[in-house]
Amino acid sequence: METVPSPEPTPEATPKPPPTSDPWPGHLADRGHPGARRIGAGVEGVVYALGDGRVAKVWSGRPPAGLELTRQVYADIARHRLPFATPEILDVEEHEGVLVTYERELPGAPARGDSAHEDHERELSAHHMAALLAVLRGLASVPGTDAMRRLTVQGDDRPLWRGHDRFQDALTALVARAVARHGAALAAHVPDLDEGVERTVHALRSLPNAPVTAIHGDLVPPNIHTDAAGRPVAVLDFGFYTTAGDPAFEAAVTAAVWDMYGPYAEEHTTELTRLFAHELGYPHATLTAYQAAYALTTYDLFGLDDGDGHFRWCAGQLRRNAVFGSHA
Q1: Which of 98, 117, 252, 279 lies in the 20 to 30 Å Cα band around 22?
Q2: pTM above 0.85, yes or no
Q3: Which of 72, 104, 136 is where one domain is finished?
């Protein structure tokens, strides 16, 4: 019997592959969380709201500090009665080689957009300034712990405090390691780099002992959540520069990074540095020295020339810094 070939399927009849679906809501439903919905994604992974005050974070890798150390640092901060919430890891699982952490859901919404994506107005908001002061005071009330001292700053190869008893000395050593990584690239954009590094190192070593408290290290606007009245209700995304240290360092870095790229960024850094010195009692020269140290220790984390926004920002910070510069 002659075999009659089947007709070629028309384009309309060609089956389409099923759309790529997100498997995690189904997995989370199987774990007792029906209705889980994706609410955000970042460098660390994807976050799903679970209800009942919990979220699940599906990690794209592993916490840089390791899960148990990260969990301990979160717990060290969360046990204090702060006026705002902070992350807390409540449970952990590994599914098909992927790390999933179940965490406290943090309230509020970002204080504002990051200055890389949204220009900040010339006049700093009174709500924002009050929120920053509240967060700085809150974190400065949390004592630094052994777990915090064991953290490694992003880009470095060892715990910041290893071999040191003072934050200022640990930071000085970090400056030396960071400049040794790619100092030649930075020197191409910052005149007299070696002399500026020497002045910064001398300033850091000359700083007196200070309280050792929790340092977030990256209080950019999206990392502070506020309520409808502008009050801070949550601080998130610890890890980039989280450590134990002088709370003046936190204030100095926050003044510099709140508005990094907007048209009034330089004015805002000056104004916030002045505000924090006045309201929190930190010497202006201390804040300036810490701002130079921050630029010297993060300049190469995303790029090695002025085509990278963060590198360009760090180089500009150093060229203007009164401690780093020859006019100090």
Answers
A1: 117
A2: yes
A3: 104
